[in-house]
Amino acid sequence: MATDKFYKERQMMVQYQIRARGVKDEKVLSAMEKVPRHLFVSESLRDSAYSDSPLPAGEGQTISQPYMVAMMTEMLELKGHERVLEIGTGSGYQAAVLSVLASEVYTVERIEPLALKAERLLKDLGYLNVHVHVGDGTLGLPEYAPFDAIIVTAASPKVQETYVKQLKLNGRLVIPVGERYTQVISLTKKTPSGIVTSTSTPCVFVPLIGKNGWSEEDAN
Ligand code: SAH
User: Is the four-CA dihedral 46, 52, 56, 57 of positive or negative sign?
Assistant: First the structure.
């Protein structure tokens, strides 16, 4: 995988878009260098796969900018043994990055065709520790909880209590929180002395649609 024709572009992406902006976790940087992002976009977009921007992922959804993927992943502080939950499978790209860095990855997507496509691709590429579920991810995945880390890759109107409940002690939740068209990345830690939340980078994600998110009408 490391020697495909985009390898050089991936190295440049890591160097100039990700490392240069302050992502330091070598494991994250190495995962971003390994995962073939171009295979998670449609063929016509392959040459833009390593550009410094989000890209269409089909069904009106987007695959996040590489820096955003790296930064949010770094905030999870994965060491390798974790069970991670991702909400918003989309193309499966973020799940593939998590797959390299954690023990088991559970990912939930509400749009079935996207979920099925991502599931097949992840399997074909050998990311066998990723488990794709179709459903409303605003409910989390109670049957597989608790998780060491939860990452939500769609915008939420608030930090969801449901996710915090499904975190292990010392677990971490990363979620874009805010208005429909503008959010900030929020990090919540479940510490022995309580829940600690901080916010950082401004961002724009597609909306989290479901019981605890936006309604389909609000989202349009
Ligand atoms: N992580 C993805 C990008 C996600 S885009 C990647 O790497 O490609 C956000 C995704 O969240 C979209 O695919 C959208 O359909 C999905 N989504 C929105 N609301 C959801 C919900 N309630 N449950 C699960 N997925 C949801």
Answer: positive
